[in-house]
Specification:
The chain is an alpha+beta fold and 204 residues long. A 5-stranded mixed β-barrel has the order 1-2-3-5-4. It is globular and about 55 Å long.
Length: 204
C-alpha cells in the first residue's frame, strides 16, 4: 500500500496532479484545500504528499488521495467514517480549511459545514453527531505550513485561543485545562499533543 510519495510535479489539473517518482508518474487526487496550497507550484518543483490509498470491490481501480501532512490525512480518515461520506465525496467536500471544519464540528456549527461542497443540513448534522468530541486537535492545523515545535508558552497560548474563541470554553476554564494537562505530561511539545492530553481527561 502506498502511504507517502516524494518526487517532482509533472502536471497539474483542476482536482489532481501527476507526480513523477523514480521515473514513474502517479496520478493523485487532491482536495481543494490541498490544491490551493500548491497554487504557486509549477512543473519540476519538488513535492511530497501523504497518501490515502483507496481500493475496494466496488472501486477496483486504485485511487491515490494526497495531503500535505499526516494529520490532514488522519482528519480525512475520520471524516469518511461518517455515514454516506465515502472517499470520493470527501475529496470534493473539503473546499474549506480542515481547521475550520474541525472547529465547526466541535461547536455544532451546521452553517459552516454547509459551505462544504455537496454537504446539506442533514449531512452536516450527521457529521457533527459522528465526530463531535474527536476534532479539537485538528482545529490547530495550519494549512500549507509545515508543523514546527513551538515553545510551551507559544503553543499553550495557541491552544488557549482555540479553546476560547472557537470551542466556546471560558478563559479561566481553558487555562486550568491547559495547566492540568501540562502537569500530567510535562513532555508535551506540540499543540496537537496538548489537545490530546486535555481531552483524554474528559473521555468517559
Amino acid at each position: 500500500m502506498i502511504a507517502y510519495l516524494e518526487g517532482k510535479l509533472l502536471a497539474k489539473e483542476e482536482d489532481r496532479i501527476l507526480l513523477l517518482v523514480n521515473h514513474i508518474g502517479y496520478e493523485i487526487l487532491l482536495p481543494a484545500v490541498v490544491m490551493e496550497s500548491l497554487k504557486t507550484y509549477t512543473a519540476g518543483d519538488p513535492l511530497s504528499l501523504h497518501i490515502y490509498y483507496h481500493q475496494t470491490e466496488r472501486q477496483p481501480k486504485p485511487v491515490l488521495i494526497g495531503f500535505n501532512s499526516e494529520i490532514e490525512k488522519e482528519f480525512f480518515q475520520y471524516f469518511i467514517s461518517v455515514e454516506a461520506i465515502g472517499p470520493m465525496k470527501a475529496v470534493k467536500a473539503l473546499n474549506i480549511p480542515v481547521s475550520a471544519i474541525a472547529a465547526a464540528i466541535e461547536s455544532g456549527d451546521v452553517e459552516t459545514l454547509k459551505n462544504m461542497k455537496s454537504i446539506g443540513t442533514r449531512t452536516a448534522q450527521k457529521i457533527i453527531a459522528t465526530l463531535a468530541g474527536k476534532m479539537s486537535r485538528f482545529a490547530l492545523i495550519q494549512e500549507g505550513k509545515s508543523k514546527e515545535k513551538l515553545p510551551a508558552k507559544n503553543f499553550g497560548d495557541q491552544v488557549l485561543e482555540v479553546l476560547v474563541s472557537q470551542l466556546g470554553h471560558k478563559a479561566s476554564d481553558a487555562k486550568l485545562m491547559i495547566s492540568e494537562a501540562l502537569k500530567r505530561n510535562p513532555g508535551i511539545s506540540s499543540p496537537e499533543a496538548l489537545f490530546d492530553e486535555i481531552y483524554r481527561a474528559y473521555k468517559p
